[in-house]
Description:
The complex is a heterodimer. By secondary structure, chain A is α+β, with helices and mostly antiparallel strands. Chain A has helices at 14-31, 35-54, 88-92, 105-112; strands at 2-11, 59-68, 71-80, 115-121, 125-133. Chain A has a single domain, classed as Histidine kinase-like ATPase, C-terminal domain (Heat Shock Protein 90, 2-Layer Sandwich), CATH 3.30.565.10. Chain A is built from four helices and five strands; from the N terminus they run E-H-H-E-E-H-H-E-E. Chain A has a five-stranded antiparallel β-sheet with strand order 1-2-3-5-4, with helices on one face. The radius of gyration of chain A is 14 Å and the shape is globular. The model of chain A has no long low-confidence stretch (mean pLDDT 92). By secondary structure, chain B is of the alpha/beta class. Chain B has two domains: 2-149, Globin-like (Orthogonal Bundle), CATH 1.10.490; 164-274, 2-Layer Sandwich (Transcription Regulator spoIIAA). Chain B has a five-stranded mixed β-sheet, with helices on both faces. The model of chain B has no long low-confidence stretch (mean pLDDT 84). Chains A and B meet through helix 1, helix 2 and helix 4 of A and helix 9 and helix 10 of B.
Amino acid sequence: MLTARTEQIAVREQHDIVSVRQMVRSWSLAVGLGLVDLTKLVTAASEIARNTVVYGGGGTLQIEELRDGLRLGVRLVFEDQGPGIVDIDRAMTDGYSSGSGMGLGLGGTKRLVDEFDIASTPGVGTRVTITKWRSR
Amino acid sequence: MPELNASRLATLLDQRFDELLAAWTAEQLQVVRRGQISASDMRAQCRELLQAIRRALAAGASTRIDGQSWAAARDLLGRVSSQRAQQGFPSSETAMFVLSLKRPLFDALRRASDDADTLAADIWTVTDLLDQLALFTTETYLRSREALITRQQEDMLELSTPVVKLWDGVLALPMIGTLDSSRTQIVMESLLQRIVETGSDVAILDITGVPTVDTLTAQHLLKTVTAARLMGAECIISGIRPQIAQTIVQLGVDLGDVVTKATLADAFKLALSRIGLSVGRVRPAGAPALGAAPAARD
Lengths: 136, 298
């Protein structure tokens, strides 16, 4: 598997979330994701980007176009240096929110994408990696 | 030392005013694309700024442009750069308006001076002065652009949330773009306000123009629906496209007992039936319109 191209943008404020959605949309179109998959990935990116801003205190998004043989995909890596998540299992549980949201962001995102990985160290930060492959 | 420089510069500007103006205007006309600004306007702006610089140098001892003696020059630069920001000049060209004076001034200094130390000191003063003026121009330019962007954002907030009346007692809110919190606030307020004003029973929230519905958007929608209900109006959400529907399901968002319809037309039909009205055909399709002359018969 190789990374065809990559780009990094800052995810600091509310309006950055809009830029994230627009960027993910254009990269998904470039890879050739279908309308449903594109909408799912954009929605997932919106969820994680909001977590990065609201809970992580801002961070970065690295977006990658992946090539694995004939398979094409988009990978998003969100990183922040925020307080981190103490209990990841609980954070992934539907209906649990440490803030005022619906508590569906992480669990819902996992269902929207093909690959989901979350790594968090309290006091150090959180990294969420999501990947969506073009279905053939 | 700076005092000496300033008065020497003022004298130089006095002596070679026309020569400097001509050289500067020529530099400008090379930089600026044709058609954006007329040559005579350009010459007038250059002349005005050069005069302001000369007066400031002659009057004040300081070459720091935040002083009182530079007020006229600052004022002029402010006007020129905000005007250029509105005309769509790039920031680099706006800064070049000031920076392109460097070469003509350096040339004049070199010809006027025979002492290398004095020349170096003068060139430093001029560079410092013009850099300050250019920075000031760029800052003003950016401020004007930011003001423009802020105004446009505010316009968008206002424009994109019209509550329309479809029928007596039926309101519709066609939502477009992203539903971030500040906009949703306005959406909610304007909808609730109109429900009170019109005494409507049904409100349709149409999200055909909303590209992404994530959990926050869904939460905002549900809150709006709940608030409208508390005011005695029923809400119907319409315009949920297939890809949005699939995404909402996988996210796990439960729209509960909110009534949803695929299209605004379906929602309107339902809204009419809720207030006891229905849409029907007054004549069979293809029949002549009412009042038309009946076809002749034997």
